[in-house]
Specification:
With 363 residues, the chain is α+β, with helices and mostly antiparallel strands. Helices cover 37% and strands 21% of the residues. One of its GO terms (molecular function) is lyase activity.
Length: 363
Amino acid sequence: MTNADATVALDERERAIINSFQGGFPVVERPFEPAARALAERGIDVTADELLDTIRRLDEEGTLSRFGALIDAEAIGGTATLVAMHAPEERFDKIAEQVNAHREVAHNYEREHPHLNMWFVVSVADDEDVEKVLATIEDETGQETYNLPKQHEFRVEAKFLLDGPISDGDFDLSELGPDVEPSGRGSLTPAERDLVIELQGGLPLTETPYADVADAIDQDVEWVVETINRFLAEGKLRRVGVVPNHYALGYTENGMTVWDVPDNLVSEVGPAIAELEFVTHCYERPRHEGVWPYDFFAMTHGRSEEESERRIEQVRERMGDFFDVGDDDWDTLFSTRILKKTGIRMDERAAANTDAASEENEL
């Protein structure tokens, strides 16, 4: 099956649901009912039960990675950083095994690059722990690591839309939830910590997912609904909805484009590249002199090599609006192998950011 054929099995209703609910799913006690009504208003004839059954089936078949809330780990607490290293071909698998053995390593990819061919994410509760983890990895592997922490985030919007109904993905039912005010707190209460940990695994695919979450953490459903809506307003949650398995949807071309953008232009270039709808992640990161000359990262995904190449060229054209982009000013690192992919350990990060005083008050 070619990349272009990867979504042939999805019917019109399934495509509409995937396009509609990659964010903005209602956070109310019985969310599938208003979600189904909103789809019907767009010409997609579906009942609440049919909507729930369809999402459940897509999840079971692997078309979806999960259904639930996308947590902004940085807003919850702790830190995560991208790390690059060179793994010699003859020891590559052994080094991957050593790196992956660290529970702080959440993702690890092999990428096409003549030197830096292993890229992984380290997630820890405390900033100082990053250097400890990297020092241990260097001792174990004998290879130098290059820490590339995010210095500025311009976009994180990993949506994968399909041809078919509601292909612009402009569905947002988040206004159906209760009115909330941000708390102004950076830390979590113990109850909020428990909610974050429960949400990490996804929402139950039932008629009343938020009530099920409330039962799991011994809270009232009204509190859970209100707190999730507040977390959305505060940025602790990016969105609630379906999370597609982009490989299953045919988005198999994963290109990390990297750019040597003049320092004085990054603040202008960042928003301009973030406006490109197919750019899912867009960051400023540090250079490493003599090894890594790039300070700007933009992730693109495509359903074929041709589509991916077109999108990368569009990024280059937009860059050209700001400076003369030479051949040595950019590169694309395609992922060739997933070496590890696990969720960021939110339990430790949330626990480290829980207010001890709030805990005493709840006892």
